[in-house]
Design goal:
By secondary structure, the protein is an all-alpha fold. The protein is 83% helix and 0% strand. The protein is built from 11 helices and no strands. The chain has helices spanning 2-16, 22-29, 34-66, 70-89, 100-107, 113-117, 120-129, 132-144, 148-170, 172-175, 181-249. The longest helix has 69 residues, at 181-249.
Length: 250
C-alpha cells in the first residue's frame, strides 16, 4: 500500500506540478478576495480528486471493456509520460497542462467570481490538472498494484497530492512573491527529469509483464510437447524391445 501511495503521489506531483500551476490559478482568480481564492482552491481540489480517484478505481474496468491488456496500457502510458518529460526537460510548457482553448479562456477572464466559477472544472480541473497525463499515471499505478490494498494506496497518494495542490492554490498569493519565471523554469526541468525516470519504470514494467504473460502461455505448451515426444519415444523403445525379444524364440 505504501509503495503504491508513494508512486501515485510522486508521479502526480511531477505531472501536475502544483507549485508551478499555482501561477495559472493566480491568473484565473486575479485580484479577487482571499476568501474567494480559498473557496475556489477547495473546489478545484475536490474536482481533481474525484476525477483521479475515480480513474484509480474505474480505469482498469474501462481497459477491460475495450480489450486492452494492462502491460500494453502501462507501456503506452510510459511513452506518453516520456514525451511530456522530454518537453519539460527542454523547457517547453507541458501540453497535458495547457490547451489552446483553455489558454484562451484563462486569458479572457474578467475578475468576477461567477466567471471564474465556470472555469474551475473546465479547463482548470480538466484538462489542465486532471488531464490525460495525470489519468494515465494513476491508472498505470493502479494496474501495477491491482489488489485492494494497492488501489487504496494509490487513492491515498492521489488524495494527498490533491490536498497539496489545494494548499498551494490557497497560498497562491504568498507564493506569487517568491516564484520568479527563472524559478519556474528550474522546477519544470527538475520535474521533467523525474517524469522521464517514471516513464522508464512504466515501460520496463509493462515489457516485463508482457514477457512474463507470454512465457506463462508458452511454457505449458512447450512442456506438453516435450511430454508427448517423450511418450512417443518410450512407446517406440518398448515396441523395439518387444520385437527384439520375440526374434530369438521364433
Amino acid at each position: 500500500m505504501e509503495i503504491a501511495a508513494l508512486k501515485a503521489f510522486l508521479g502526480l506531483f511531477a505531472m501536475m506540478n502544483p507549485i508551478g500551476n499555482a501561477g495559472i490559478f493566480i491568473s484565473m482568480t486575479g485580484d479577487l478576495p482571499a476568501s474567494y481564492k480559498l473557496r475556489a482552491a477547495i473546489k478545484v481540489t475536490i474536482y481533481v480528486m474525484i476525477i483521479l480517484v475515480g480513474s484509480v478505481w474505474g480505469g482498469t474496468a474501462i481497459l477491460d471493456a475495450f480489450g486492452i491488456s494492462l502491460p500494453a496500457f502501462q507501456f503506452a502510458g510510459g511513452l506518453i509520460v516520456l514525451g511530456i518529460g522530454f518537453k519539460m526537460l527542454g523547457g517547453d510548457e507541458n501540453s497535458a497542462h495547457h490547451t489552446k482553448e483553455g489558454t484562451q479562456k484563462i486569458e479572457s477572464l474578467e475578475a468576477k467570481e461567477a466567471q471564474v466559477d465556470s472555469t474551475l472544472i473546465v479547463p482548470l480541473a480538466m484538462p489542465i490538472l486532471g488531464g490525460p497525463g495525470s489519468i494515465t499515471t494513476v491508472v498505470t499505478v493502479a494496474a501495477a498494484y491491482p489488489t485492494l490494498e494497492g488501489r487504496i494506496g494509490a487513492s491515498i497518494g492521489t488524495a494527498a497530492l490533491a490536498l497539496v495542490m489545494g494548499l498551494c492554490f490557497a497560498a497562491s498569493g504568498l507564493l506569487r512573491r517568491f516564484i520568479t519565471p527563472h524559478a519556474q523554469q528550474i522546477i519544470m526541468r527538475f520535474m521533467g527529469m523525474i517524469l522521464v525516470a517514471i516513464a522508464a519504470d512504466m515501460m520496463l514494467s509493462g515489457y516485463e509483464q508482457s514477457i512474463g504473460t507470454s512465457a506463462k502461455k508458452a511454457i505449458p505448451a512447450l512442456v506438453e510437447d516435450v511430454d508427448d515426444a517423450q511418450a512417443q519415444i518410450k512407446v517406440r523403445d518398448e515396441a523395439a524391445a518387444s520385437a527384439g525379444t520375440q526374434d530369438p524364440g521364433s
